[in-house]
Specification:
Layout (H helix, E strand, L loop, with lengths): L11 E10 L2 E9 H7 E2 L1 H7 L18 H13 L8 E6 L4 E4 L13 H10 E6 L4 E6 L1 H13 L7 E8 L4 H17 L5 H7 L4 H12 L7 E2 L15 E2 H12 L14 H4 L6 H21 L1 H9 L15 H16 L3 H10 L7 H7 E2 L4 E2 L3 H14 L8 H10 L9
Parallel strand pairs: 3-7, 4-8, 9-10
Antiparallel strand pairs: 1-2, 1-6, 2-8, 4-7, 5-6, 11-12
Length: 422
């Protein structure tokens, strides 16, 4: 819809339920993907039709920048995943002549227990929504989904007959009407709660990293009773029995298997966006599980402190001499460094480093980086993690790239790569 000339669609009749919430009447129906592609417009597309009719423009208040990657991910998901499913689009509608037609519900021998009140309610609720084709329709909630559907049917015509639930609400072009729709737009976006990362890990059947994380927890002997199931990346200092938690383990799996860059440095692996949105076949999944197990077992049986923990099943995180590898920040550093060591065939050097070096806050260099003297706690800022990772990589001979900010941090700490090898 690049043209400023308004497009007219054919009339259509849609099966519908009519409901009321607060002072909003809404209409729940089904739209084929092809109809979504043809009828739902971006606010800026609608505004381009009405250059000389300010009262009909939606204005900047509902304009949201489309994120190309997000739209592309939706297109790929619809094309690749045969079990694709979306929640409802909430659509504003104005102009044209949309109309509602009741469907009369009568009793029969099977349903003769319905009284007049029930019959009246059903007749008022079930109906047909008629669109003549000249309406302006825009997404109040679901703009990326709507445009993703539009692009997907361009690339795969078979998707045109898929159906999605759509909830229509009437938008009025008066000042008061615009305020009402703006408030609804704001409310939907303010109270919409995205699915948490922990919920994705626990439930997703499309995110391969989530599937593998669950498999490692449930069936990898090394991790039996060693992974904490919680909803954040922290692990209590009093915890003596768990190596890490489910969210950090997910990060480890993602790091091992995908091409997610390590601080701007390219690495090999599956395309991250595809791998966490589209399930691979079971055969490949089993191979990837074995790859993770191989790398984890190699590290955890070769690094002395880790081998000791997985043998005894106990660690005291309160001690200053306890390795930072028992903290999420240290685990991230280990696997970020290990991923790049694979690229440069320096795996043995990484293992040797963590075996020779006292990677704890008793060490004066790491104390300077990670220990807060005032609070007696570990500092976990991403910038410190980044600094430490780059320092370790440089120390074992892996070429790194420092940004201007990295160089400032490096100079502020004043620790040389050779210092942490002593």
């Amino acid at each position: 819809m690049n043209s400023s000339k308004k497009k007219t669609n054919l009339p259509i009749s849609l099966p519908c339920l009519r409901g009321k919430m607060g002072d909003w009447y809404y209409y729940v129906t089904l739209l084929k993907f092809g109809e979504v592609a043809n009828r739902v417009s971006l606010p800026k597309e609608i505004d381009s039709y009405y250059k000389n009719k300010e009262e009909l423009k939606l204005g900047d208040w509902i304009q949201r920048d489309l994120e190309p990657n997000r739209t592309r991910n939706i297109v790929d998901y619809l094309k690749r995943q045969s079990q694709h499913f979306f929640n409802s689009l909430i659509l504003g509608i104005y102009e044209g002549n949309p109309s509602w037609q009741d469907i009369s519900v009568n009793t029969n021998k099977e349903y003769n227990d319905l009284d007049d009140n029930n019959l009246d309610y059903l007749s008022r609720t079930f109906g047909i929504l008629n669109l003549e084709g000249t309406e302006d329709i825009f997404a109040i909630d679901g703009q990326h989904r709507a445009i993703g559907i539009r692009e997907a049917v361009k690339e795969d015509a078979k998707l045109r007959d898929d159906e999605i639930t759509a909830i229509f609400v009437a938008h009025k072009t008066t000042v008061e009407g615009k305020i009402r729709t703006r408030r609804l737009f704001s409310t939907l976006n303010r109270y919409a709660k995205p699915v948490s990362q922990s919920e994705i890990i626990a439930l997703s059947e499309d995110n391969n990293c989530a599937i593998i994380t669950r498999e490692l927890i449930e069936n990898f002997p090394l991790f039996k009773d060693k992974i904490l199931i919680n909803k954040n990346r922290s692990i209590a200092i009093e915890n003596k029995n768990h190596f890490t938690n489910i969210m950090v383990l997910y990060d480890i799996v993602e790091r091992l298997l995908t091409n997610k860059p390590v601080y701007g440095m390219q690495v090999e692996g599956y395309d991250k966006n595809n791998y966490i949105t589209t399930r691979i076949d079971d055969g490949k999944l089993k191979k990837d599980i074995k790859i993770c197990q191989k790398h984890i077992k190699e590290l955890f049986t070769s690094i002395h402190c880790l081998k000791r923990f997985f043998t005894t099943g106990n660690i005291d995180r309160k001690l200053a001499t306890t390795s930072l590898l028992f903290r999420p920040i240290g685990q991230n550093i280990l696997f970020d460094a290990y991923k790049l060591s694979l690229k440069f065939q320096k795996e043995k050097d990484i293992i040797l480093f963590f075996n020779k070096n006292t990677f704890n806050v008793k060490n004066k260099h790491w104390k300077k980086v990670f220990f807060d003297k005032k609070t007696g706690t570990i500092l976990t800022e991403k910038s410190r993690q980044r600094y430490a990772t780059l320092l370790i990589l440089e120390a074992i001979g892996i070429p790194i790239k420092r940004t201007k900010k990295d160089i400032e941090t490096y100079q502020n700490f004043g620790i040389k790569p050779s210092d942490i090898l002593k």
